[in-house]
Amino acid sequence: MADLYAASKSGPFILAGPCAIESREIALKTADTLAGLASKLNIPLVYKSSFDKANRTSVTSFRGPGMEEGLRILSEVKAATGLPVVTDIHHPEQAAPVAEVADVLQIPAFLCRQTDLLVAAAETGRIVNVKKGQFLAPWDMQNVVGKLRAAGNEHIWLTERGSTYGYNNLVVDMRSFPQMQSFGVPVIMDATHSVQLPGGLGGASGGQREFVSVLACAAVAAGADGVFMEVHPDPDKALCDGPNSLPLAQVESLLRKLLALWEVARG
C-alpha cells in the first residue's frame, strides 16, 4: 500500500475497470487485459469495480453481486493478475471487511461529507480515495482531507468527477486540480463519470463516452496526477454505466496519449 501511494505521488497512475462487478468472467477478462497494458506501458494501474452501486437511478437498476461475492471476485482478480484493487464502501461497518481485500477504499461522491464513513475508512490504514461531491467547490474538499488526517490517515486521494450546473449534466472546472493539490494529496480525474448524464435516460443515467478522451487529456494537461475510467469489453451490453464507459479495446491508445501528455505537463 505504501509503495502504491508513493508511486501515485511521483508519477501518473490509472484506476480502471467496469462500473460494477457483473460476473467473475468479465472481471477476470478485463483485469487480465488491464494488467497486460500496465506492464507493457510501465504505469501503475489499480483495478476498480463496485460490489454494490447504492445510488442507482431506479430501484430496478443492477447494483452488483453484494459485498461477500464481490470481495471474493476481487480477491481472485488480485491473485490472478497481481493488480491492486479499489472498491466503494457506503457504510462505516463495511470499511474493515472490505479493507481485508481492497488496497484502496473509495468514498462515493454523494457520501463525501459523511464523517463516520470517512473516519472508518481512514482507520483501516488503506489508501482512501474520495470522490468530490457534485455539489461541492474544490476548496470544500479541504475539510474532507482534514477529517481523514484527524483519524490518522495520510494516504489520501481526491477525485474530480464534475459539478452539477444544469439538469442531467456535469461540467469539470479544470482549476479544481491545482486547487485540490494544494492540500498535499494526489488528485485524480474521473474521465467517465464526468461525461455521465445523471438520470438522463429517465430510468437510468445516460452518457457521452465520445468525450472521455477529451476530458482525460484536458485534465492531464491541467496537472491531474491520475485518471479514473470505467472500461468494459462491450459497453453497450454493460449492466451499469455503459453509456459513459470506454470500450476495453480503446484503452491502450488513450493511455499512450495520456502518457505523452503527462511527460509534457510534468516538464
TrEMBL record:
GO terms for cellular component: cytoplasm. Keywords: Cytoplasm, Lipopolysaccharide biosynthesis, Transferase. SUPFAM superfamilies: Aldolase. It is found in: Cytoplasm. Its EC number is 2.5.1.55. It comes from the Bacteria. The keyword Protease does not apply. Its main location: cytoplasm. Pathway: Carbohydrate biosynthesis; 3-deoxy-D-manno-octulosonate biosynthesis; 3-deoxy-D-manno-octulosonate from D-ribulose 5-phosphate: step 2/3; Bacterial outer membrane biogenesis; lipopolysaccharide biosynthesis. One of its GO terms (biological process) is keto-3-deoxy-D-manno-octulosonic acid biosynthetic process. InterPro entries: Aldolase_TIM, DAHP1/KDSA, KDO8P_synthase. Residues 13-257 form the DAHP synthetase I/KDSA domain. GO terms for molecular function: 3-deoxy-8-phosphooctulonate synthase activity. It catalyses: D-arabinose 5-phosphate + phosphoenolpyruvate + H2O = 3-deoxy-alpha-D-manno-2-octulosonate-8-phosphate + phosphate. PANTHER family: PHOSPHO-2-DEHYDRO-3-DEOXYHEPTONATE ALDOLASE. Belongs to the KdsA family. This is 2-dehydro-3-deoxyphosphooctonate aldolase. It comes from Pseudodesulfovibrio indicus. The lineage of its organism: Bacteria, Pseudomonadati, Thermodesulfobacteriota, Desulfovibrionia, Desulfovibrionales.
